[in-house]
Amino acid sequence: MMTEEKDVLILAIESSCDETAASVVKNGREVLSNVISSQIELHKLYGGVVPEIASRKHIEKINQVIEEALAEANVTLDDLDAIGVTYGPGLVGALLVGVAEAKAIAFAKNLPLVGIHHIEGHISANYIENKELEPPFVCLVVSGGHTHLVCVKDYGKYEIIGRTRDDAAGEAFDKVARAIGLGYPGGPKIDKLSKEGNADAIVFPKAHISDAPYDFSFSGVKSAVLNYINGCKMKGEEYNNADIAASFQKAVTDVLVENAMRAVKEYGLSKFAIAGGVASNSTLRVAMKKACEENGVEFYHPSPIYCTDNAAMIGAAAYYEYIGGTRHGWDLNAVPNLKLGER
Amino acid sequence: MRILALDSSGLVATVAILEDEQTIAEYTVNYKKTHSQTLLPMLDEIVKMTEFDLASIDAIAVAGGPGSFTGLRIGSATAKGLGLALNKPLVHIPTVDGMAYNLFGNVGLICPMMDARRNQVYTGIYRFEKDFQVVEEQMAISVQELIEKLNAYGEKVTFLGDGVPVYRDQLEAGMTVEYCFAPAHMNRQSAAAVGALGMKYFEEGKVETAREHQPDYLRLSQAERERAEKNASLS
What span, in angstroms and rounded, lies between the C-alpha atoms of A253 and A257? Predict the structure, then answer.
């Protein structure tokens, strides 16, 4: 007799930074709902995310977001197999809201609890729209808080190949955007403005680190931009913001592409994916796609809605952790500096 | 009627289950471990110990602030998650009211005080006269202001709370009316007291949905405060 495999339904919750998000995901790859309540307008007033305000907003919104995710997916808590939640890395106060909420729901409904690493979520976002994508592959995770080059050896098995030594790529975008008066968040604004500029107008340094060929450093290029602007101001010279944006973006993109392609070759893999908020950057996408084509590498990327912080990606990751046997107890805590691969 | 109660507003983590006129279980820990690691395991323990059916509760009473911002949110998110999952209403108990209710039947004024840093305490003034009375609603003020208020009432005062060891010397120096400090078994947050007061509020219809509930911090965040000050100085 044929036994039909039972579907696995997971409610996932994400609150590590400034988005309160919940999602219901079926079998790790089918998103039944993906609700995101963004606080970005609120934090714009302060030029960046204010942790205490973010935490307060999460607690205001979290039940509504979860209820909407369940309703949109047309499921009740009784239909679920597990609860997945981001427990690090991120802002501790923000993470704690999602963690406490997820634990209480799982406890009350007697459901397994699966804690998820935020970066593992970003990587797993690629599974949602690329049904054929399976490990092993190399993934570049770039966002406001993270820049990691990761070898995904298997589901839930990661090797960090390289990481930023200082600022995350997205952080550098925010700082440069502020310097040329674009405001927060900087990524999308620089991306847009750079289309009007000349990427070869100014040569900003591409920091390579001699003893760690896959690591990144974006603090240097950010400082170079600030020095360039100050230099122009002191000499009373005019400067072109669009050229600065385009040249800065090129300097960052070039390093990301070079290191990523070197890693794919070194590890002998044929698949490469990008993830994280900066993975929506159009220049980066085009450059990565081109480099992959030139190197005969299959290129994967999530849609922008799965690049930004969201809970569907946490649900995708939670599915593979769940079937792999990961379970957390009622004492699960938020771990703001959680390492990828730690459980 | 069955009430599940919790308070994680200060250093103390405390959970309780109450049924009508009795406390079925209470678990209180006054230790520096984070509430994220203590609160739910403690609840799990009393539920198991008393073979309690969580779905049978009528409401969840939670100390809704003031207190440690993070502590409040752990309690709040736990209560909201339980409320959502069990489809039960929440009863928001002002933290300081819950602490005062510990001293039911006390003669004279009751003054709980929590150390609020920045030279302030979260406090309030209460008494029992036929019923529990809130004389002055919970607030954040300096200890000196509090002492002046209390001296002006001219009544005996009983102090409790984690602000007492911090400001004991100042109280002893400034109080001109009779006063005493509540003893160890009733001088901190207690979920049973939150639950007992919760039962009273529940019967009076003072409930909210799990979705609506959020802590009452009594204070803006530092960033909001600084922004407001900046705007005020500009205008």
Answer: 6
For chain A, give the number of residues. Answer: 343
Q: How far B32 CA lies from chain A's nearest CA (Å)?
A: 14
Inspect the interface and report whether the beta carbons of B85 and A108 lie closer than 8 Å. yes
A105 and B81 in contact by Cβ < 8 A? yes
Residue B227 inside a domain? The answer is: no
Is residue B88 in some structural domain?
A: yes
Q: Measure CB to CB from residue B84 to each of A63, A92, A331 and give the nearest one.
A: A63
The topology (CATH level 3) of A9-125+307-323 is Nucleotidyltransferase; domain 5 (3.30.420)
Q: Confirm whether the ipTM is greater than 0.95.
A: yes
pLDDT-based confidence at residue B16 (cuts at 50, 70, 90): very high
Q: What are B133's strand-pairing partners?
A: B127
Distance CA B127, CA B136 (A): 10
Residue A170 in contact with residue A187, Cβ under 8 Å?
yes
A4 pLDDT tier (thresholds 50, 70, 90):
low
Per CATH, the architecture of A135-302 is what? 2-Layer Sandwich (3.30)
CA-based nearest residue to A17, from A227, A310, A323, A224: A310
Interchain pair A330, B81: CB under 8 A:
no
Residues of chain B neighbouring A62 (CB-CB closer than 8 A): 77, 80
Check whether residue B77 and residue B126 sit in a common domain: no
Closest CB to A334 among B36, B44, B217: B36
Nearest Cα of chain A lies from the Cα of B88 at a distance, in angstroms, of 11
On whether the CB atoms of residues A41 and A50 are closer than 8 A, the answer is: no
- Contact: A50, B86; criterion CB under 8 Å: no
Q: Report pLDDT digits (tens) over A61-93.
A: 999 999 999 999 999 999 999 999 999 999 999
**Per-residue pLDDT tens over the stretch A44-61:** 889 889 999 999 999 999
Whether B38 and A331 lie within 8 Å, measured CB to CB: yes
Residue of B nearest to A45 (CA): B227
Distance CA A197, CA A245 (A): 7
Cα of B235 to nearest chain A Cα, Å: 18
How many structural domains does chain B have?
2
pTM reported for the whole predicted model = 0.95
**pLDDT tens-digit profile of A270-318?**
999 999 999 999 999 999 999 999 999 999 999 999 999 999 999 999 9
